[in-house]
Records
---
Amino acid sequence: MATPNLRIDVHHVTRVEGHGNIVVDVQNGQLKQCDLEIVETPRFFEAMLRGRPYGESSHITSRICGICAVGHATASLRATENALGVVPSEQTVLLRKLNFHGEMLDSHILHAYMLVAPDLLGVGSVIPLAKSAPEVVLRALRMKKLAGDLCAALCGRHTHPIAMTVGGFTHFPSREQLGELRERLIAMRPDVEATVELFTQLKLPAFERDTEYVALRAKGEYCYIDGEIASSDGGALPLTDYRKVTNEHLVRHSSAKRTHHMRESYMVGALARFNINFDELHPKAKSAAAAIGLKPKVTNPYLNTAAQVVEIVHCSEDAIRLCDVLIKRGLTWEEPVKPARLSGEGVGACDVPRGTLFHNYVIADGLVTGANCIIPTGQNLSNIEGDMRALVPTMLDRKPPEITLALEMLVRAYDPCISCSTHMLNVRFE
Amino acid sequence: MVTALKQTLIDPSIYLPTYGVVRNVRPMTGMEKLFDIALPEGMSLGHKPGQFVEVSLFGVGEAPISICSSPSRSNGGFQLCVRRAGDLTGLLHTLTPGSPIGIRGPFGTGFPIERFRGKDMLFAPGGLGLAPLRSLINQVLDERSDFGRVIILYGARSPAELLFTDELAAWKARGDVEVHLTVDRGDENWKGNVGVITTLFPKVEVHPRNTVAVTVGPPVMYRFVLMELLGKGLPDGSIWLSLERRMKCGVGKCGHCQINHLYACQSGPSFSYAQIKHLGEAL
Amino acid sequence: MSAKPKIAFYEFTSCEGCQLTVVDSLQLYPELLEAVDIVRFREAMSEMGDDYAIAFIEGSCSRPSDEAPIKAIREKAALVVALGACAHLGGINTIRNRHDLGEVRRFVYGDKAEWYDTYPARPISAVIKVDAAIPGCPIDRHEFVRTVKRLLQGRAPELPDHPLCVECKLKENVCLYLRGTTCLGPIVRAGCDAICPTYGDSCEGCRGLVPNPNIEHLKEVLTEHGLSVDQTLAKMTQFLTYQVMEMEAAGHGDPQPAH
Amino acid sequence: MNPMIIPKAALDDWVRLLRSSYRVVAPRPLHGQHVFGEVGSASEFDLGYPTSVLPPKKYLFPAREDLLKFRTDAQQVEATIDGPRTVVLGVHTCDMHAMQLLDRVMATGYSDQHYLAHRNKTTLVSVECLKPCTAGSFCKSMGTLSTPEVFDLHLTDLGDAYAAEVGSDRGAALLPGLKAARPFADKDTARLNRVMSEKWPRFPLRLEFDVTELPSLLSTSYDSELWKELGERCLACAMCTNVCPTCYCFNVMDEVDLTLKSGKRLREWDSCQLDKFATVAGGHNFRTARAARQRHRFFRKGKYQTDAFGLLGCVGCGRCAEACLVHITPVDTFNELYRRQHQPAAATPQGG
Ligand SMILES: Cc1cc2nc3c(=O)[nH]c(=O)nc-3n(C[C@H](O)[C@H](O)[C@H](O)COP(=O)(O)OP(=O)(O)OC[C@H]3O[C@@H](n4cnc5c(N)ncnc54)[C@H](O)[C@@H]3O)c2cc1C
Ligand code: SF4
Ligand code: SF4
Ligand code: SF4
C-alpha cells in the first residue's frame, strides 16, 4: 500500500557536524522534492585569508572544521608549500602521515561508535549506551584517547594543531614518546579487533546504487596526502587540475556548493578510498574487510561506515610501522624549510576522513591574495541527494518515521561535516 | 602567648586549619551575619581585640575575618561578623548551626590595649568597621574603670545597614558611653544625624593629649577621619586604625598584604598612624 | 546545586571543535557523565531535551537570524556559558569584520551573494547576557571541567586574568622572542597552559586580552623584533578583531557597537 | 673534612650512585637554554651551564604545590608534606644566596613546614662560577660570587676534575661509595688557587656604586620619576618575578574533584607585577599603577628584604634582565636612580 502523500522535514540532522535539514515531499506518490538543505551560516574563509601572511593560512583554515583540523592544516600547508617552492623533508613527510593516522582514527572512531552505532543498537546516543553497553563506550573512549594522544604528541592537539607549519614542524616528539605510542598502538590491537567484530555483527541497511568514486591515489601506499586524483570510472588527473573534477555550482537550498565529475554526482570518503585503493591496504585491514564482507567495488553507501572500520585497522597498523621507521631513523629537531620564493600559486590535496579535500592559494609577496577550499562533504552532497532520490521511492510503503530514520542514517553514513562544506565557492583570483 | 589554637599551627603545617563548629548564626542586616563559633574541647582562641582568623570552607577557600567578640566575653568561643562579598563569604552565609568550619589563627598584632588604659577612648568605626572594633569596645566596657571617657562615633550608609543596633542601644543606655550615630542616607523612620561620619566629629570635644582614637572602616574613609582627628590635635601615635589588605596566608609569607615593607598580617592589621604615615602605600 | 544539573549544548557559527573537545574531555573524565545530565548535544545525540539549567553556546552570532534562537536560549537557561573563542570573542569569524561585507559575500558566492544572510560576526555576549565564558580555540578540556565543577559548586567560574607569559615561563619554554619570532603572550589571558608556545608556535590570542593590556608597548616590542605594521595588525586581528575594533571605536570616541 | 677531588670521568658513576638513594636533578640543556630537571647520567647535564630558566628554587618552593587534602563530606583534612630526597647538582652561588634568603624568610615568625620539609630533604651541590653567565648578570656587584655557608657540597671545576668542599654532613654523605674520589693533594691546592685567582678579573662590576648604598639610595628614590617611566613600558607579564630566585609570593586555592566530595588546597607562585595581586573583594586595588608595582618590586629587591632579613633581595643572577621584553633590568634601574640623584641635571630616560 503506497503512501500517496509524504512530507519529511528533519530540522537539523543530529549526530553530524554542522547543520543540515532533510526535506522530502511526495505528492500522489510522485517525488516532488528531495533535498539535503545546508543551513549552516556561511563563514567566508577564503575571503578571510586574503591579505594575511601565508604562515597564518593553515591556522585559520584549520578552524573550518574541528574534526578534520589536521587534514585542513595539512592540505593548507601543502598548497602553500607548492606555491612557494618548499619541499618538506622526509622526516616531515613521515610525521605528517603519522599525524594523519591519528586524526583518521579519532574521526572514524567517533563516527562509527558515537554517531552510527547508536542507530544500529536502537538508541539515541552514546549516553544511554554508556549504561547499557559500558564496555563498548569505554573501548571507544580508550581508542579515541590514544588517537588524540598521538596527535597531541606530534602537533600539540588534534583540534587545531599547533606544531605544523610551512616547511615542517615547530616541535618534535621524543623518542620515548614515540616508543610509548607504539606500545600503546600494539596494545590497542584487541580493541581494534573488537571493533571489527562489532561491525561484523551489526547489520547495516541494504541499498545499492552504483556511482562514481573519487579518491587520491599514489603508488605503493594507501594514499591520504598528495598523489593524483583518481576516479572509479577510470583515469586520473594531477592535483592542479582539481577544478576539472569538482566543477562546482551553487544551489538555492544550500549554503554549500555542489560538484560533479563524470556523472551527475560522485562520492568521496572511506568507501571511495576503499574502492580505489583496496590493493594498498594493510593485510590486516584486508582481512578485516573480508570479515565484514566488503569487497571492492562496494556500492552500498551505508557501508561507508564499514569502510571506515577497515581504515581503522589500516591506520593503526600503519601508525605502528611509521613509529618504527621514525624510531629507527632517529628524530632530529629540524628547522622548517624556508620558502624559495614569496609569490606563487599552489594546490594542496589530502584525503581526510570524509574524502578528498583541496586547498588552492595564490600568494603575492608573502600575503595570500586568492584562496579556494573544496571540502569533501560538499562533493558528497549531490551524491547523497542522488541516493535519497533512489531510496525514497523504494520505501513509500513504509511508515514515515521508518523512512525518516533510513534517510537520516543515510546522511549520517556519509559522515557529513556540514560546517566544513559551507566554505567552498567559486573563486575569482585577482 | 601561645594559645591552644595557635599551637596547632606549628605542627604539622601552618596552613592546616582546625575544625570549629558554628554554634549560632544571627542575621544582622541584608549583607551581614554574625557567626558564633566554638572550638574543639580544650582549645581556646586567646585573641586580642583587632586580631583576625583565617576562615576555611573546604572546596571554596579561605578568607581573613576579624574577630568581633571581646576576649573578656569568650564564652568558650568567639564571634565573626561577615559580609557577603563573594564565594567564600557567600557560602558562609548559607551555614546553619552545627556546621563545621575551618579556623586558623588568631593572627596579627591586635590593638595594644594596655597602652590605652587610663585614656579617653574615641571609637570611629565606619560600616563593617564596627565588627573588629566591637571586640575592643566590649573589652573596654568590661574593664570600664580602667578608661576615661568612651565615645563612639558610628556611621553607616543607611539605617538598615547599621550593625549591632541592639548593642549600640545598650551602650547608650549605660550612661557612661557617648554614642553618636549617622547615616549617609536616612529613611522615613530615621530621626538621627544624616551625613558622612566626619559630620559627627564637631559634636564632640576631646582632650587631645589624653585621648586614644581608634578608627576602622573602608579605605576611602580614613583620609577624612584622620583629618578630623589631627585637626583635634591628637598626636599621630594616639590614632589607631586597621588596614585590611588581600591576604592568602595570614602568616607573613604570601606577600599580598604588604604595605611597603610591612606585612599587614604580621605587623598589623592594627597600626598607629605614626607607624604608617610615611608609607606611600598605606592610605 | 544538589540534583544533577541538566545541561544543553548549542552551536552557532563555529567549527564545532569546542564541542568535540567536550567529547574528548570524557576520555579523561568519564565521571562527567555521572556529574551532569546532558539533555541536548546535537553533535553527539538525537535526544533533544528542552528542559535545562545550563546552556553552553558554541559559535559566534554572525547573521541577524541567529539572534532569535540565541535569545530563546537565554530565556530558558538559568546560566549561559559561552563555549570557546567564537562565542566568547567572536573568534576567527570576526576576521571578516574588517572587510566590506558585501564584497566578502560576492568574493565567496559570486552573483549568488544575495542568497546569503550575514552581518559582522560578534560574541554571544553582544546579543545576550552571558554568565561565564570558557575561552580558547578550541577550549582547554581541563578548563572545561574546572568550569563545570565551579558551576556544580554553585560558584561563578573565574578566568585567570594574568598573561600567558606566566604559564609559559613556568613551563620553562624558550621564549619565542628569543627564537626570533614574536608572540602575543604578554597581553593575552592565560589558562591554556601556554600550549602554543610549548609546541613552538606563537600565541595568537585566542583566549582574549588580559584586563589592562599594555598594547602600545607590545607593539613597540613587535616592531623591535622586525614586524611590519601590517604583520602586527594581522597578529592582533586573528582572534581579537572584535576586541580590537571595540577598543579602536572607544579610542576614537565613537559610540560602542550597538549591542 | 678536607676537600676531595672528583675526576670528571667519575661523574657518571657518581650520578648513578646517587640515584640509588636520591632523585638527582641538574641543569639540562634544552633548546639552547638550561632547565633543571631529573637526570639519569652525566651526559644529560652540563655543570658549566650559563644560567637556568627557572632557578633551582623550584625544588624547595615548587611553582604549584599541594598544601592540604580534604573531604567536603566529612571532617577530614590533612597536610600534604612530602617529596623525594633530592640532590641538586650545579647550583650557582647567586642561587645559593637566594636560598639562604628563602631559608630565613621561611623560618622567621611562623615556619613554613612545606618549604622546610623540602629543604631538609634536599642536598645542595653548588658550583663555583668561573665566568659571567649572561650579559644581564651582576653577581660581583651584589657580592654573591662566592657561595654562602648554606652549601652542602661545593664544586670547583679544575679542568679534568672537580674540587669538592664539604659544607655539611648531608654533603659529606654524597661521597662515600664513590671510589674515584680522593683527598686533596698539594698540587690540587695550587690548581684550585690558580683557578680562583683567574676567575675574579673575568667578572665586571656593573653597579656604579657600592651595593651597601642601595637601601639608602632607594629610600630617597621613592618618588622618582623613573618608576613612572618603567610603568609605562612594563607589560605586567610577571616574567621578571617568575624567574627570580628570591621571589616567593604565592596564591592559595582549593580544587575539588568532579564529585565535589574531596579536594586539595594548593599554592601557586603569584607576582606583585600582576594586575590583581593587591585587589580585594569589591574590586579595590591597593597597587593599581604599573609604576607602583615596579617600585614595589625593586624596593623588595634592594631594601625591604635587607631591612627585614639582613640579606639582599636581589642576588644579581640576571634572569629577569634576560626575560624582560622591554629591557627593564635591575642594574640599569639602580644605576639610573643613582645617576639621577648624583647628577640630576644630566638625568636621561633609561635606555632601551
Ligand atoms: C584583616 C582582615 C579582616 C577582615 N575582616 C572582615 C570581617 O570582619 N568581616 C568581613 O565580612 N570581611 C572581613 N574582611 C574581608 C574579607 O576577608 C573578604 O570580604 C573576603 O576575603 C572575601 O572573600 P570571598 O571569597 O567571599 O570573596 P571573593 O570576591 O570571591 O574573593 C575574591 C578573591 O579575593 C580575595 N580577597 C578579596 N578580598 C580580600 C581581602 N580583604 N583579604 C584577602 N583576600 C581577599 C579572596 O581570597 C578571593 O580569592 C577582612 C579582611 C582582612 C584582610
Ligand atoms: S613565548 Fe610568548 S608567552 Fe612565552 S614568555 Fe615569550 S612572549 Fe611570553
Ligand atoms: S618582565 Fe619586564 S615587562 Fe614583564 S612584568 Fe617584569 S618588568 Fe614588566
Ligand atoms: S631581581 Fe632579577 S637579577 Fe635580581 S635575583 Fe631576581 S631575577 Fe635575579
Note: The two ends of chain A are 58 Å apart (CA to CA).
---
Amino acid sequence: MGFGPHIERHEMTPGELNITTETLDEMLIVRPTGEVDLGCATLLQENLATALAGTTNKLIIDLVGVPYMDSSGVATLVEAMQVARRNNINLLLCNMQDRVRSIFEIARLDTVFVIVDDIDAARGV
Amino acid sequence: MGFGPHIERHEMTPGELNITTETLDEMLIVRPTGEVDLGCATLLQENLATALAGTTNKLIIDLVGVPYMDSSGVATLVEAMQVARRNNINLLLCNMQDRVRSIFEIARLDTVFVIVDDIDAARGV
Amino acid sequence: MSMSEPQLQIKLLSDPQLLGPVRGIVKASAEKAGFDADSASHLCLAVDEGLANIIRHGYESDHEQPIWMSIWFEADDQPGLTIHIEDEAQQVDPSTIRSRDLEEVRPGGLGVHLIQEIMDECSWEKRGDKGMILKLRKRLPGNLTGCGSSGPDDGDGIER
Amino acid sequence: MSMSEPQLQIKLLSDPQLLGPVRGIVKASAEKAGFDADSASHLCLAVDEGLANIIRHGYESDHEQPIWMSIWFEADDQPGLTIHIEDEAQQVDPSTIRSRDLEEVRPGGLGVHLIQEIMDECSWEKRGDKGMILKLRKRLPGNLTGCGSSGPDDGDGIER
Ligand SMILES: Nc1ncnc2c1ncn2[C@@H]1O[C@H](COP(=O)(O)OP(=O)(O)O)[C@@H](O)[C@H]1O
Ligand SMILES: Nc1ncnc2c1ncn2[C@@H]1O[C@H](COP(=O)(O)OP(=O)(O)O)[C@@H](O)[C@H]1O
C-alpha cells in the first residue's frame, strides 16, 4: 500500500488549468483540472515532460477534472505517449469524461491510448 | 395522501424555460425549469396567473430547476405574491438555489416572501 | 481604467433571447479573469440588468436595435473586468436612472440596485449625441481599494 | 444560408486566452438554439479549432490581431446555427487546409477533421484580398437533409 500519496501542488493561477502531480505506489499520477485548450496546452506539456523524466515505470494521466479538451490537448497527450513508448514507460489515461472521450473517438485515438476507468483499474495494467 | 400527483406538462421549447404545473394534496405546485430572464418572464407570468386563478388554497413555486433569475423574474414573483395576498392564497417559494437566493437578498426581498426548504416543508405552512 | 483596445467586443440585437448567450461569454470571461463561480454569476446578472434596461427603456422593446459590449481583462495592479455597454437609444438624464425605494415592495425597480450592489463601479453617461453608455467595473477580491470609489468624473448622480 | 444581419457578432484578439470566453457564448448560443449539451459542447470544439488554427497558422501566434465571429440563429424551415469566422491573416489556398491521415498517429493535424465531423457544413474561403473566412453550419437534429450536402458553391476541396 506504500506510504500514502505524496502530493506536490502547483500554484493555481485563477481561471487557468491547475495541474497536480502525485506519487502513489510507484505510479506517478498527473492530474490536470480545468479546460485544456491552446491557451494552456504548453503548461500541460511541460508538466508531462517533467513527469516523464521522473518516472521509469507507470505514468497515469487522471482526467477526472477535465470537462473539455481540444486538439491541442490531444496533441500534447499523443506526444507524451510517444515519449513514453520510446522510454518503455507505461502511460495510461483514466477517469475520462464522456465528452472528452468523444473527441478521442472522433480523432480515432480511443484505441491508440490505454484508457482505464480509474486509478484502481490502472494498478492492474 | 391524495391520489398522487396530477401532472400537466407544457410543451417544452428547446433552449427555453419549461414550466410544469402539478397538484399534490390540495397544493398547486408550479415548477419552472431553466434560467428566468426578460426573454421568458412573460411565460412565467402567464403560468402563474393561470395557477393563481385555479387555486383557493396554497400555491408553491418550486425553484429547484432555476439556477439563475434576473430582476424581471423577481418582479414576476412579487406580482404573483401581491395577487395571492389579495385573494388569501398562501404563496410559498421552495427549493431556492443559493445563487437565486442571493438575488432576493440583494433586493431585500428574502424576508418578504415565505421561503421554505422543500415541498415537504411547504405542507406544514 | 484601461482604454487600450478591449480584448472582446460583442454586437448584439436588442432581443431578450440573446441575454442567455451574452451571459455565456460574461460568465466564461469572469472565470478566466479569476472570479469564483458565484461572483461570475453576479457579474452576469449585472450585465443582464443593464442590457434588459436598454431593451425595455432605451429601445422600448424594439428587438432589432444594436447594442455594443466591450470587455477588458485587466491584469495590472488592479486586476478585474471592465465592461462598457453602448446603445443608440433615446438619451436620458443619467440622474433619472435610479433604483426604487427598497422598502416599498412592488414589481420592478430593482435592476439598477442590483447593478450597483454587484459592481465596484457603475455609471451611465450620454454617448455623444446619440445613445447611452453604461460603464461597469469589478475588481478581483483581494485587490480592494474601496467600493464605489470611482472618482470625481463618475457623475452619474446615483446614491450608493 | 440566411444572410440577414447576424444576431451576434464578436470581435476578439487572436489570444488563446480568449478561447474560453468565446466557448462560453457559443455554448449558450447553441443551447438557446435548442442543441443538447453534448452537441453544444461539440459546437464549441469546432469553433475552438477554427480559431486556434487562425491564431497558429494564420497569424503565426501573434496574439494582437483581429478575428471576427458572426452567429445566426436560424429558426426557419432548417433551424440551426450558422457561424462565420473571419480574419485578416495571410491567405492560403483552401485546398491546403486539410486533416492529416488518421491512421498515422502523431501530434497535431486533427483540428480540421474535428471541424468536419462536427459540422454539417464547413468551408474555408479567401476573404476579398485579405484574410480568410470559415463558414460553419450545424442543423438541429430532427431537421436533417443529409450531412455535408453543402452544395456546389462549397468549393473548399476538403474530402468528407
Ligand atoms: N438604459 C436605460 N435607458 C433609460 N432609462 C433607464 C435605463 N436604465 C434604467 N432606466 C431608468 O431607471 C429606472 C430604474 O431601472 P430598474 O432599477 O432597472 O427598474 P425597472 O427597469 O424595473 O423600472 C427605470 O424605471 C428607468 O426609468
Ligand atoms: N486558418 C488557417 N490558415 C492557414 N492554414 C490553415 C488554417 N487552418 C488550417 N490550416 C492548415 O491546415 C492544416 C491542418 O490543420 P489541423 O487539422 O487543425 O492540424 P494542425 O493545426 O495541428 O496542423 C494545418 O497544418 C495548416 O497547414
Note: The longest helix of chain B spans residues 71-86.
---
Amino acid sequence: MNRLPSTSPEPGARPGPEARLNREDLARLVAADIKSGSYVNLGIGQPTLVSNYLRPEQAVTLHTENGMLGMGPEAHGADIDEDLINAGKVPVTELPGASYFHHADSFAMMRGGHLDVCVLGAFQVSATGDLANWHTGAPDAIPAVGGAMDLATGAKDVYVMMNLFAKDGTAKLVPTCTYPLTGVGCVTRIYTPEAVFLLTEDGIRVRETFGITLAGLQGRVKVELLPPLALRKVARTAN
Amino acid sequence: MNRLPSTSPEPGARPGPEARLNREDLARLVAADIKSGSYVNLGIGQPTLVSNYLRPEQAVTLHTENGMLGMGPEAHGADIDEDLINAGKVPVTELPGASYFHHADSFAMMRGGHLDVCVLGAFQVSATGDLANWHTGAPDAIPAVGGAMDLATGAKDVYVMMNLFAKDGTAKLVPTCTYPLTGVGCVTRIYTPEAVFLLTEDGIRVRETFGITLAGLQGRVKVELLPPLALRKVARTAN
Amino acid sequence: MPIIASTVAEAVAGIRDNSTVMIGGFGNAGQPMELIDALLGGGATGLTVVNNNAGQGDAGLALLIKERRVAKIICSFPRQSDSWHFDAAYRAGEIELELVPQGTLAERIRAAGAGIGGFFTPTGYGTLLSEGKETRVIDGRGHVYETPIHADYALIKAHTADRAGNLIYRKTARNFGPIMATAASITIVQVSNIVATGDLDPEVIVTPCIYVNTIVRVPAPTPTLAEYEVNQ
Amino acid sequence: MPIIASTVAEAVAGIRDNSTVMIGGFGNAGQPMELIDALLGGGATGLTVVNNNAGQGDAGLALLIKERRVAKIICSFPRQSDSWHFDAAYRAGEIELELVPQGTLAERIRAAGAGIGGFFTPTGYGTLLSEGKETRVIDGRGHVYETPIHADYALIKAHTADRAGNLIYRKTARNFGPIMATAASITIVQVSNIVATGDLDPEVIVTPCIYVNTIVRVPAPTPTLAEYEVNQ
C-alpha cells in the first residue's frame, strides 16, 4: 500500500498529520495511494483534483465514461476541441496510447470490473460501504444519476473523497445512509480531511488521522472504528 | 415480387417450368428473388451458389458471420489471404464498402434482425416453418451447431434451399420435423427443384412448380398446400 | 443503400407524431444539433426522446421540450444548471421522465440493436432506480432485470460517411451514436463529410452501413476540420 | 502496462492445471497457434477450453485434446472432417462437451467482460440446446436464459500491439479476439508487430490496453506481411 510521504522535507509540503488536510493535500494523498499502472476513473468535482497530483512515473491511465481511455489534462486555448471532452463536459486532451470507444463499450469496461479504482464524492457512506451520492431525496428535487451508479458498482476499488462532517457538524460516515443509495456495499476507502478509513471485512478501520485523535474521531462518528493496524499492535503488546 | 425471367430467350437459359430445376437454376432463382439493396447471409453448401447469380445492379451486400459485411467472391491464387475467410473457412475477397467487426458485433447484427435475408440448407421444414438443419439426432452423432440457430432466428426472411425429396422419396417438407430443430417458425420461403413455397399466415402457398403439377406435388407432400394466387383466381372464376 | 438527403429538413421529414426518437451526443460532442432543429421545424409532437440529458440552454432538445413536443424522456441526467425548460415542464407535470443509470441506458440501447430480450445488471441494485423491478442474486451479487429500448428513429452525428452508409466518428463525439444506430428502425445521420464507397478503410469503420438509412451532410465549422487534419 | 514476454513459453508459463482458457480464432484466421503450442509444451492439464471449434488435424488445440489435457470444451462446432482427436476423446467419454450456438457463445463471452449477469436470447429457443434452461416469452417471442462465460486466461492473436497493450486486428482474424480479451482475468496476446505507444491512431484501436496483460511477438510469415502492405 502506498503511503503519503508525510515526512518528506520538500518545500511546500503539506502540513504533517497534526492538522486536518486541505483539499489539495487530500487530493495529493489519494493520488499517492493509487498503485502504479492502475486504470482509474475520477468522478466530477473534488475527485478531479486528484489528476493534478498523479506522477508520470505512476503510469496511471485515466478513463472517462463518455468513451475514452488515456485522457490527458484539461485543454486550454488552441488545444480545445469540442469533440474531446470528459464526463464533466470539460475539454480535455489525449495522451499517447489513448483509445476511443462507444458508450456501451465504455460502460461494459466499468461494469465488467476492469477499472482498478474510481474516486467519487459522497453525501454519505454507511458502515457497510453503501454509497449515497446522487440524490438528496428531497421531494421537490429533480433526480439525475448519470454514471454514478455504474462507477460505484463496477470499479474494483471505490474510493470516496468527502468532507467527514456536514455543515451542521454531523458525520457523513453513518450507520445507515438516510439519502437514497447509489450502490450497496461498494465503497472500499474513504478519504476525508480528518482521516482515511479502510472498509474491511472486519469493519471500518482508521488508517491514519489528521489533526484529531482516534478517540476524538470516534467521539464524532456514530459507527464503530477499528484502530490503525500499527496502533493495535501496540495495544496487544501492552496487554 | 421478382419473378424468374423464365421466358427469356438468351442462350443457355434454364429450362422452362416444365422441368424440375437443377442446382444452378435453383440458385439463379433465389438470386433473382432477392430484393435490390438487401443485406444477405448465404449459408454453407448449396446456398453459397446463390452468390454466383447476384447481379451487380442488385447491390446486394453479403454478410459472413465471422465478422464482415461486404464480402466478395472466393479468392484465388495471389489473392488468397489467410486472414480473410468466410464462415465456411474458404478464402474470400473484400468489396468496396466492406467493414470488419468482432464476433459479438457480428451476431448482434444477425440476432438483432438487421439482415434482410439468409439462405440456408435444411434436412426438414415443417408446415409452420420450423427448421431442422443442424443435427440428424442419431444417437452416435457428434452434434455441431455453429451459427445455424443464430441465422435461423435472426434474419428478417429465412429462405431454405433444399431438395424437396430425400433419397428414399419422402418429402422434406413435413407436418412436424422429426429431426432436432434449429429454429421455431422461422422459415419464410422454401426453394426446391420442384417448387417454391411461401410460408404465409394462411399456410403454405405454392408460388410456382417446375416439372410437376400442383396435384402431383400435393400427392407427394403430407402438408396441405395452398395454390398459387393466380391459380386460385382461376379457380374462383370457374366456380 | 442509404438515402443521401440534401437538407436536414428532408432527412427528418418522415418522423411522425408519437414516435420514439433516440438522439445521440454527450454534451455538445456528437450532438446532431441541425437534425434536432429540423425535427423542431418539422412539427412532430408526442415524442418519446432517448438521450443522455434533457436539453440545455435554449437550443436543440431544450426547445423541443419547451414547445411541449416531448411527452416522455428516457435519460440519465436531466437536471443541469441550464436545463430550465425541462425543469419547468417536469414540475408542471407535462413531461414524463424515465431515469436510467447511464451504463444501463447504453446497455438497453445496445440490447435492442443486438436482439437481446432482457438482461441482468448489478448497476442500480438496492437503489431507488430498481424499485419495482425484477431482481436476481447471481453468484452472490444482486442484479436488476432491464429491458431493451427500441426506437423508431435515431438522429446521430458522425464525422464521415461513405456513400454506402459506413460511418466513422471523432474522439469522444462517438459516444451514443454507434449503439443508437443499431437500435432504431430508421437511423438518420448528419456528417461533416461524405466520401466515395471504398474510401474508408474497412478496418476502422465503426458503424457498418447496414445500420444507416439516411445521411445528410452538415459541414463542420472550419476550425474543427483544420484541427482534424492536423490530428490525422 | 502489459508484460512483453520474449518467448511464447514465458507468455503462458503462469497457466495452471484446471484453468479455464479461451482460445481465439475462427478457422486459421486469428488462431494463436504458437501460444497453443506453448500451452501444450507447458504441461497444464484438466483445462476447460472455450473456442469456436474443437481442434482440427494434428496441430494446436487438437493436440491438447489428443494428450487429454482438456477436460471440457465449450464450443459451437466441434465436429469437422479433421476433428479426429476430439471425436475419439468424445466417443471415449474422456472430454465433456458444452455445445453453444455460435452467437450465444459470443454473447456469453461478451457478457462476462461487460459485467452482465445473464441475458435472454431468442436463439436456440425450442431446440435441444435450450433443454433444461430457463425460458421466457418476451413480446410474444420465446427466449432462453444464458449466463456469462468467464475465463482465467485468454490466448488470442492480434496484428499489432503498442507497448501500452492497445491492439488492432486484421480482417476476419478479428473474430473472437476482442471479446475474449474482455472476459479473461489474464489476456495473453500474440502479435505480428509491437510498436511504440502513440503509434496507433486512438480512433482505430479495437482492444483498449486495459484488457491486455501479456504480449509476445510472433512474426507472421513473410508472404502475409507482404500481402498486408499491398493491401494498405
Note: The first strand of chain D starts at residue 3 and ends at 5.
---
Amino acid sequence: MKRQLTLTRDPIDEPALVSQRALTAEMGAAVYFSGIVRGTEDGATISAIEYEAFTPMVERQFNLIFDQIEKRWPVEGIRLIHRLGLVKVNEPSLWVEVITPHRAEAFAACQFLIDEMKKTVPIWKKPLA
Amino acid sequence: MKRQLTLTRDPIDEPALVSQRALTAEMGAAVYFSGIVRGTEDGATISAIEYEAFTPMVERQFNLIFDQIEKRWPVEGIRLIHRLGLVKVNEPSLWVEVITPHRAEAFAACQFLIDEMKKTVPIWKKPLA
Amino acid sequence: MTIRVQFWSYFKELTGCAHLTEELPEGSTVDELLKRLHARHPKLAAFQNSTFIAVGLDYQGRSHVLRAGDEVSLFPPVQGG
Amino acid sequence: MTIRVQFWSYFKELTGCAHLTEELPEGSTVDELLKRLHARHPKLAAFQNSTFIAVGLDYQGRSHVLRAGDEVSLFPPVQGG
C-alpha cells in the first residue's frame, strides 16, 4: 500500500492533489474527505483554529493506523495531509484520499482512518476568536 | 439542499470541480467519490465502458434520491456528474460531492446516494474490448 | 388506446427494436402489455424476472393500469457508476 | 536515571512548562513519575482521568517501567481533523 503523509503549515491545494492522482487499472474507487474549519466552536463564533502537533508521534500513530488498514482492506494507496498552525474558517485542515478496487472498502477504510486518527494521533486545536 | 446534477459526454474535470466548491461557514465536511472505469470486467480485459442512459428518468430518479437524503441528513449541497457514452479505463465515470456540517452524515449520505443509484437510476454499461 | 414502448440496453437487441407503439383496450395493465410483447419476443420473455418497468419516469408494477398516451420503458437491471 | 517529560496542548499552561527533566530511581514506572508531577502541579492532577501518556512515540499505561533516557509525553485527548 502506498502511503503519503504530509504535515504542513501551507494551505492544502486540493485541486492540485486531485490532479496528481495515480492509480493502476485494477482500481475503481477513490474516496476523498476534506475536513473544513467551521465558523463556530462550542457555540462561539471563531475566525480560525490553531493546530499543534507532536510531529514524530503523529507520523508513528498514522503509520500504525495505515498498518491496520493494509491488513483489513485492499487499499492501493492513501494520501493524507493535515495542516498545522493557523487554519482559517472555510479552509480544509485535513484532506484524505483512499484508492481501492471497489467503493465499499474505500468508504470503510477512509472512515476508519479518520475515526482512529481522532482517538490516537497527537494533534490538538485551539479555537481563535 | 443545493442540487447539481450533470450528465455529460465530456471528461469529468475533478480539479476544476473541487476548485468550484462553495460552502457556508457552518459546513465542516466534504466527501467526494470518484468511480473509475477498471481495466477488467467479469475477468476480461477491457479498454472502455460505453454508458447509455434514459436521461429524463435518470434526472427524475436522482431527484427522488436527493429528496430522501434531504429528509434524512443535514446536507447543504450535492453535486453529481455521470458520464455517458464512451469512458476509457482509468477515467472517472461518476463524481459525487456531499457537503455537511460533520463527517459522519457526509459519508452516510454519499454512500446512500451511490447505493440507491445502483438500484434505481436507469443507466447501463457495455464493456468494450 | 395507443401505448408507446421503449426498450433500453440489451433489451433493444433481444427485441431488435428501440421503440414501438401498441394498441391496447382501455383499462389494460402493464401485465397485459408485457404478455403481448413476450408472446411476440420469446427472448424478452426469458428475462421477465429481471425486467424493470417504468411508466413515464416512474417505476410501476405489473398491475399498474395504463392510460392512453403512456410511455412504457422496459429494461434490464441498472448499472450506473 | 534521567527522564525527559514533555507537556502538550493546554497541559503546558496547566504546568507552566513545555518540558522538564526528572530524576527517578531505576525501575520507576510511569505511575511513579505521574505521582511526583501531580504533587507538584495540582492543576495537572485534576486532569489525571483524561491524561494521555506516551513513552517515546507509543502510548503506554501507568504500570509501564521507565528506562534511563526515556521521553515521556503527557497530553489531553487528541483533536485532529
Note: The longest strand of chain B covers residues 92-100.
